[in-house]
């Protein structure tokens, strides 16, 4: 009975769609990452990045840490940094919901809001690294981001589907989730199809990105994604609301986007077992227009 909060990261539930999937020959499962203690899939990567940096002697309690984030990674880093008595500054777009800001501050982090979106936040953080002796985990280029999912998310999905998964669907942001899970699942069965989700041109969906070439995550390998499906902001919002009302799954907009893509996929298959990631919980979006 010596478990800590860190032991509660991972082993999240996998639940079957009861309403939204209407293809009787396809099973659609949702992996509920909001059940992590920090409320999102990013707990996995944050723990791996912090623990490995500490073990490697790259950081200690005297380090000045900084990270650019659209939200969930920041919350996870704030929670885990606090446990290890590390000071961290988190840089977010100024459009971030107040729930995210307040959650990070509750965990003890300093929050800086940037007017130029996530790209501006990334530039700001890296300038502090280059000129002010800060340390950044740089989740976009940190192999421990995707390795967290190679070591946990992928094996959990394989175990809980008893090796029968045929398709994996994930929103793409830093791409850590899809890279690590893809690597593991393809090692078990090369026939498993990996489907990434991106926004349509002009759509802004928190947690899902189509990066400009200069900002493309260095951990991203397009060979590990078999297919990319695009969803609009309206599709993602509508599906997020349906997830809550019809499936009892309260997630954020990136989860709605992934679900919309997973249902498109389900409707075109003759048979299959699909697993889609529900990235986080909906309560950190209540001050936005997502559920209005």
From TrEMBL:
<feature type="domain" description="Tryptophan synthase beta chain-like PALP">
    <location>
        <begin position="6"/>
        <end position="280"/>
    </location>
</feature>
<dbReference type="InterPro" id="IPR036052">
    <property type="entry name" value="TrpB-like_PALP_sf"/>
</dbReference>
<keyword id="KW-0198">Cysteine biosynthesis</keyword>
<dbReference type="InterPro" id="IPR001216">
    <property type="entry name" value="P-phosphate_BS"/>
</dbReference>
<keyword id="KW-0808">Transferase</keyword>
<comment type="similarity">
    <text>Belongs to the cysteine synthase/cystathionine beta-synthase family.</text>
</comment>
<feature type="binding site">
    <location>
        <begin position="173"/>
        <end position="177"/>
    </location>
    <ligand>
        <name>pyridoxal 5'-phosphate</name>
    </ligand>
</feature>
<comment type="pathway">
    <text>Amino-acid biosynthesis; L-cysteine biosynthesis; L-cysteine from L-serine: step 2/2.</text>
</comment>
<dbReference type="Pfam" id="PF00291">
    <property type="entry name" value="PALP"/>
</dbReference>
<dbReference type="InterPro" id="IPR050214">
    <property type="entry name" value="Cys_Synth/Cystath_Beta-Synth"/>
</dbReference>
<dbReference type="InterPro" id="IPR005856">
    <property type="entry name" value="Cys_synth"/>
</dbReference>
<dbReference type="GO" id="GO:0004124">
    <property type="term" value="F:cysteine synthase activity"/>
</dbReference>
<keyword id="KW-0028">Amino-acid biosynthesis</keyword>
<keyword id="KW-0663">Pyridoxal phosphate</keyword>
<feature type="modified residue" description="N6-(pyridoxal phosphate)lysine">
    <location>
        <position position="42"/>
    </location>
</feature>
<feature type="binding site">
    <location>
        <position position="72"/>
    </location>
    <ligand>
        <name>pyridoxal 5'-phosphate</name>
    </ligand>
</feature>
<dbReference type="GO" id="GO:0006535">
    <property type="term" value="P:cysteine biosynthetic process from serine"/>
</dbReference>
<dbReference type="InterPro" id="IPR001926">
    <property type="entry name" value="TrpB-like_PALP"/>
</dbReference>
<feature type="binding site">
    <location>
        <position position="254"/>
    </location>
    <ligand>
        <name>pyridoxal 5'-phosphate</name>
    </ligand>
</feature>
<protein>
    <recommendedName>
        <fullName>cysteine synthase</fullName>
        <ecNumber>2.5.1.47</ecNumber>
    </recommendedName>
</protein>
């Amino acid at each position: 009975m010596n478990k800590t909060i860190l032991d509660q990261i991972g082993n999240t539930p996998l639940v079957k769609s009861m309403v939204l999937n209407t293809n009787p020959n396809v099973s659609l499962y949702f992996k509920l990452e909001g059940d992590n203690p920090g409320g999102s899939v990013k707990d996995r990567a944050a723990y791996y990045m912090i623990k490995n940096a500490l073990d490697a002697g790259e950081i200690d309690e005297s380090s000045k840490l900084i990270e650019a984030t659209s939200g969930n990674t920041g919350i996870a880093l704030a929670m885990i940094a606090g446990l290890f008595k590390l000071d961290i500054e988190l840089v977010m777009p100024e459009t971030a919901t107040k729930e995210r800001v307040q959650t990070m501050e509750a965990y003890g982090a300093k929050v800086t809001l940037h007017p130029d979106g996530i790209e501006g936040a990334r530039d700001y953080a890296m300038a502090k690294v280059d000129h002010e002796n800060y340390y950044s985990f740089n989740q976009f280029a940190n192999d421990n981001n995707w390795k967290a999912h190679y070591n946990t998310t992928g094996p959990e999905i394989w175990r809980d589907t008893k090796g029968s998964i045929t398709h994996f669907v994930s929103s793409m942001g830093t791409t850590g989730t899809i890279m690590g899970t893809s690597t593991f699942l393809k090692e078990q069965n090369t026939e498993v199809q990996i489907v990434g989700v991106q926004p349509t041109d002009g759509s802004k969906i928190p947690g899902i990105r189509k990066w400009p070439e200069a900002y493309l995550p260095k951990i991203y390998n397009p060979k590990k994604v078999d297919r990319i499906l695009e969803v609009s902001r309206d599709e993602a919002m509508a599906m997020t609301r349906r997830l809550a009302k019809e499936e009892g799954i309260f997630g954020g907009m990136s989860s709605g986007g992934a679900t919309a893509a997973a249902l498109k996929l389900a409707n075109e298959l003759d048979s299959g077992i699909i697993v889609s990631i529900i990235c986080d919980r909906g309560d950190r979006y209540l001050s936005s227009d997502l559920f209005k």
